[in-house]
Structures are given as C-alpha cells and as structure tokens.
Amino acid sequence: MSEDTSRREMPESEPAGIFSKDLLDACISCGFCLPACPTYALTGQEQSSPRGRITLMRLLETGDLAADDPTLAEEASLCLGCRACETVCPAGVQYGHLLEEWRDEQWSGLKRPWIVRPLLLVANRKWVLRLLGLVRRSARKRSGSSSSSSGTSDQPTLMLGCFERALFPSVSRNIAALDPNLTVDPDQGCCGALHAHNGDLDQGRDLARKLGEQLPGTIVTTSGGCAAHLADVIGRDRVVEASEWLLKQDTATAQNTAVARSTATEQRPLRVGLQDSCHLRNGLGVWREPRELLGRTATYVELPSAGSCCGAAGTYALVRKKESKAILAKKIAEIEAADLDLVIAVNPGCLRQLQTGLRKAKSRTKAVHIVDYQRGDYRRGDKA
User: What Enzyme Commission number(s) appear in the record (predicted)?
Assistant: First the structure.
C-alpha cells in the first residue's frame, strides 16, 4: 500500500540566522507602532511600518522570501531607524537592534549604498578624524591628562564626534569651556554608531569597545546617536549625554542666563524650541533634561512633533533624499508657526538638517546645538 503523501508533513527549513530569535519572536503584531512610525505616515503602507517590516524579516529568516527580493531592499532603506516604535510597544520589541541585524545582511559589502561607503572609510581612520578638526582650526585642547589606558579614572572624558569636529567645531570647545574638568583626547577614534546603523554591525560594536577602553571613566558625548550606541555596547553607567551633564553644572546655566537676558528684548523674552535626538529619546530615554535646561534661561516652546524624527537619521538624508525632505518640510512649518528665535538640537546630524531647512525657508529662526546655547554662543548665527 502506497504512503499517503498528501498528509506527509514537509520539514521546516532551517532559519537563516540573520536575526536574534528572541528579538524577532517578541513582536505580537498588535499594531500600536503604526501611528508612531514616520514612514507609515508618509506612505500609508503596512509594509512600511515596524509591524510590516518585522513580517518581512520573519519571511527572510524562514526563507519564504528571497534575500534579493526588491521589497526587502526598499524597506530596509526606507526605514528611518528612529526607534519611535519602541516607546509605544507593549511587548518591548527592540526594533532598533532588529534593523541593525537586517541591514547587516542587506547592506553588506557592495550592497551598501554607495554614498555611505566613503563615510565609513573616513570614520575607520583616526588620522583622518583628527584632520577633520584641524581643517576648521578646531584641534581640541587637552584639559588635563589624556591617558586612557586603564578606563578606571574618575575624571570625565569628552567624546569627540567624528563629523562634528569639522561641521561644528564650536561644540566641543564650548563644552570644554563650560566644564574645564573634562579630559579631551584628540587621538580618539569613531564610536561605531555610523557603522552599526549602516550594515557593519560587528565593526560598529568593535569600535565602541575600543573607544570605551581608550577613554577612561565616564564618557560625555555631545551627540545623541553616539550616546545611545556607545551605551548599548559598553554600558549605560559609563555614558552621559551633554544635556544630562550640563544639567548638573551650575556654571553652564549661570553663563547663559546673562546672555539670554541680553539677547531678549523687554517686550519679548527669548523663545526657544527643541528637536529631540531620536536615539537619545527613544533609545536612552533622555528627553526631560534638555527641556529643563532650556526652561531655566528662556521661554521654552514645545513643538508638536519635537519627539519625532527630523529626517536626518544619520545617513538617511543622503540615502533617501525625497523622504527626508518631506519629513523636514513639516518640521520647518511647525518651527515657523511657533515663531521661535532658536530651535535647539542635541545631535549634530539633526542640527545640520534643521539648518539646511531653515536656510532654504529663509527663516529668521536659528538652529543651535544645546552646548553652544548653554555657553551663550549663538548670537553670531547658526554657522559653525
């Protein structure tokens, strides 16, 4: 008698091993993430939401969707990686980590967007990073010893952002001036956030570990995205973002209070708003601190979408220009409607994005890094 093959169970295919099983299995497909997702708001498409993308990840992991399927490439690229979905997820899905694992597979080697490749090459070389600072005459002065071998010193160390050194050299100078106790090592390398977010996860984590070994004790960073990545790899207890740090420094508030009062008129106090760093807010939960700082020295105005992405999202503004501009346009309209004197950023990428949008809109509002604001270094305009 022949075997009834119609009832024979087909063997399950082996998982591809791209994703961490516990992370992928955590999603319960409730859909709470959809309203929080900027790209779902743009497209209205389920596949462009966190839930939809996790479905794609699962299909890729089980082999039910080929790795070269164009939908995978499109959605891995379209996602901002802002992690807003994590803050509303009842199951605690770590979507940011899943996205990093996804891009590690989708963007490996020559599959990585061409415009991102030279940025990673630059960030891999310490001498180039140091040169970026020298180009703008912003070679950092050492505040105390730069010894970094033990990693046990009680003296805090300033982490220098890779591209912030060239684009916004005033930021590290000003935070060092606000707190002379900060040690600055100009020979430090990249923290690896750029790599981890752009398909080179192992290198990103390795760079973070090396930086943690090089810089002793508490690491203070002026970049929200770097803070979240570094804390994830070497531990939250060792990483402090600038607004957290400055909140503890009475001198920072004292210096800026006089400047803020002299800038404001008697009829109209200085009006400032804030653009959150996505990874700082959604990854580390730091959002109250910058608001408290700003509220001490000016009239703080909460923008309706202050906690939503500005469209910079690391390399997103380079890789997905159309979508980035669409997101930014709504942000600029909000800023204009709020009639702000200053909009404050806590991340260099966000700052660059806002400056570009405000300049094109011919707005009177200036975009300023929170460190420059606290030092009172903003009356000259928004150009570093």
Answer: 1.1.99.14
Could you give the domains of the chain?
21-107 (1.10.1060.10), 114-142+155-251 (no CATH), 269-375 (3.40.50)
Residues in a beta bridge with 183: 157
Q: For 268-324, what is each residue's pLDDT tens digit?
A: 689 999 999 999 999 999 999 999 999 998 999 999 999 999 999 999 999 999 999
> 367 exposed, middle or buried (CB, 10 Å; 0-12, 13-18, 19+)?
buried
Whole-number Cα distances in Å, 61 to 20, 33, 49, 82, 145: 10, 22, 18, 23, 49
Q: In whole angstroms, give the CA distance from residue 345 to residue 353.
A: 10
CA–CA distance, 112 with 164 (Å, rounded to integer): 23
Query: Which of 100, 348, 371 minimizes the C-alpha distance to 229?
Result: 100
Torsion of CA 220, 224, 228, 234, to 10 degrees: -20
Closest by Cα among 346, 351, 119, 337 to 243:
346
59-86: per-residue pLDDT in tens?
A: 999 999 999 999 999 999 999 999 999 9
Tell me how long the chain is: 384
C-beta separation of 303 from 274 below 8 A: yes
Do residues 242 and 175 touch, judged by C-beta distance below 8 A?
A: yes
Query: Cβ distance 107 to 113 under 8 Å?
Result: yes
